[in-house]
């Protein structure tokens, strides 16, 4: 089978160009991208596509970068392919944005591709990743301790980005270019073993192929494909388990703990990505949250990055912004005067009344009235109950979470609790003939 037929079958089997007509090739001028562009151009009639090219000059390698641009333009001119070129000062931009030149260059490149795709109604963006790239990526991720997600190699397609020559080894690409008399340029940084990927490419894999397995690259990629299929099944099972266990930012521990540890960890990971907004989650946090879930102890919590925390509250595992303790507050009240309580986001007003109601009270003459938050040792005498009760025990019986306790106001008379906002009145201050009615208004 020729390389063209192999790529054609790979494109067809993976539905890479389904419904698409325009394909934009990222052309650096290197061997891989030259092979990709020439091959898609050669297959354009069989595939029913129009091929375009895009070249981003990063301005990093001086004259070498200018050489690459000249070559890319000349190569496209020879094929009759329209090419788009953009210049970006990646060194300066990376410094301004506080990121690596490699990451900044990647973002600039894909932003350029996306812009062209929208402007010229191009369906797909084709990049020149090959089988060796996939093997190198898997090894890099493995050495960094990646999960199954990172051991599936490079996908043939992610959104509108496709990799049509992912089925070819670097040796097959070299042979294709040679057989078609295709010239290309070489990025000098690819020959340096300073970078991790280059060390893997230039030193590690050649040694493994020489001493252990001459078909190591193909073996790695085949294993990655098997892991990708396993991942697809696990993803499907995770979705079903997630819907059983999780609602919003909370998981029912009774349901979560029924799941196999593999699914349980994946459910936790998904909760983290959804609620924290990042997929870059270290395994140590998943381990910590799983341990937290296994204890099931209300009040237990674990800190997470970026101001988040995991907490167990009354049979639920919750991922949330870390609770900021309000601190002690107290606001004096006067009948007829509205008072804003910023810690609660409420305004309160006491007005005279002769009608009994849930929020009507009779206070001792001259009593100092106030709204405050809880204090250590607080007790009250719940209306409808005998004796007194510790506020802490009442909150626990009501299954109020830490966050809800922080947001519960207390109406007091000479320091004694008269009313727990939204909950219960103290029977000592029950309405008798005339008194004050509490009006609570929510404020933004």
Structure characterization notes:
It is found in: Cytoplasm. Its main location: cytoplasm. One of its GO terms (molecular function) is tRNA(Ile)-lysidine synthase activity. Belongs to the tRNA(Ile)-lysidine synthase family. Residues 369-441 form the Lysidine-tRNA(Ile) synthetase C-terminal domain. This protein is of the alpha+beta class. It has 15 helices and 21 strands. The chain has helices spanning 3-13, 31-42, 44-47, 63-79, 90-97, 101-119, 131-143, 170-179, 196-211, 216-245, 253-256, 261-276, 283-295, 391-397, 402-406; strands at 22-26, 50-57, 82-87, 124-126, 157-158, 161-162, 246-247, 250-252, 301-303, 308-313, 316-321, 330-332, 339-341, 346-353, 360-361, 369-372, 379-380, 389-390, 410-413, 416-420, 435-442. The strands form five sheets. It has a six-stranded mixed β-sheet with strand order 3-2-1-4-6-5, with helices on both faces. A five-stranded antiparallel β-sheet has the order 7-8-11-10-9. Strands 12-16-19-20 form a four-stranded antiparallel β-sheet, with no helix packed on it. Helix 7 (131-143) packs across helix 9. It is elongated. The model has no long low-confidence stretch (mean pLDDT 90).
């Amino acid at each position: 089978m020729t390389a063209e037929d192999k790529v054609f079958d790979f494109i067809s089997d993976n539905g890479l160009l389904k419904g698409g007509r325009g394909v934009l090739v990222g052309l650096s001028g290197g061997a891989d991208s030259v092979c990709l562009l020439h091959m898609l151009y050669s297959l354009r009639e069989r595939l029913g596509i129009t091929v375009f090219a895009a070249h981003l000059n990063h301005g990093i390698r001086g004259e070498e970068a200018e050489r690459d641009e000249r070559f890319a333009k000349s190569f496209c001119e020879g094929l009759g392919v329209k090419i788009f070129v953009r210049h970006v000062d990646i060194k300066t931009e990376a410094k301004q944005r506080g990121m690596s030149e490699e990451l900044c260059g990647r973002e600039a490149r894909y932003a350029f591709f996306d812009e062209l795709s929208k402007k010229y109604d191009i369906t797909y963006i084709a990049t020149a990743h090959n089988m060796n790239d996939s093997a190198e990526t898997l090894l890099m991720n493995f050495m960094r301790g990646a999960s199954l997600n990172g051991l599936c190699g490079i996908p043939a397609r992610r959104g509108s980005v496709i990799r049509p020559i992912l089925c070819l080894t670097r040796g097959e690409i070299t042979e294709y270019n040679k057989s078609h008399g295709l010239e290309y340029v070489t990025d000098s940084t690819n020959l340096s073993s300073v970078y991790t990927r280059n060390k893997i490419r230039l030193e590690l894999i050649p040694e493994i192929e020489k001493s252990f397995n001459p078909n190591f690259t193909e073996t790695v990629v085949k294993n990655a494909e098997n892991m990708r299929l396993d991942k697809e099944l696990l993803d499907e099972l995770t979705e079903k388990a997630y819907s059983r266990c999780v609602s919003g930012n909370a998981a029912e521990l009774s349901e979560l703990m029924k799941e196999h540890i593999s699914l349980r960890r994946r459910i936790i990971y998904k909760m983290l990505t959804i609620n924290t907004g990042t997929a870059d989650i270290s395994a140590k946090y998943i381990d910590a949250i799983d341990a937290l879930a296994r204890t099931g102890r209300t009040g237990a919590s674990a800190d997470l990055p970026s101001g988040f925390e995991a907490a167990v509250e009354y049979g639920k595992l919750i991922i949330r912004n870390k609770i900021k303790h309000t601190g002690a507050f107290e606001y004096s009240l006067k009948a007829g005067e509205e008072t804003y309580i910023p810690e609660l986001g409420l305004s309160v007003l006491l007005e005279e009344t002769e009608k009994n109601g849930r929020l009507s009270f009779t206070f001792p003459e001259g009593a100092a009235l106030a709204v405050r938050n809880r204090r250590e040792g607080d007790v009250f005498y719940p209306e409808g109950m005998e004796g007194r009760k510790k506020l802490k025990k009442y909150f626990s019986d009501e299954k109020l979470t830490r966050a809800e306790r922080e947001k519960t106001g207390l109406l007091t008379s000479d320091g004694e609790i008269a009313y727990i906002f939204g909950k219960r009145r103290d029977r000592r201050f029950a309405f008798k003939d005339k008194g004050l009615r509490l009006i609570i208004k929510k404020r933004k």
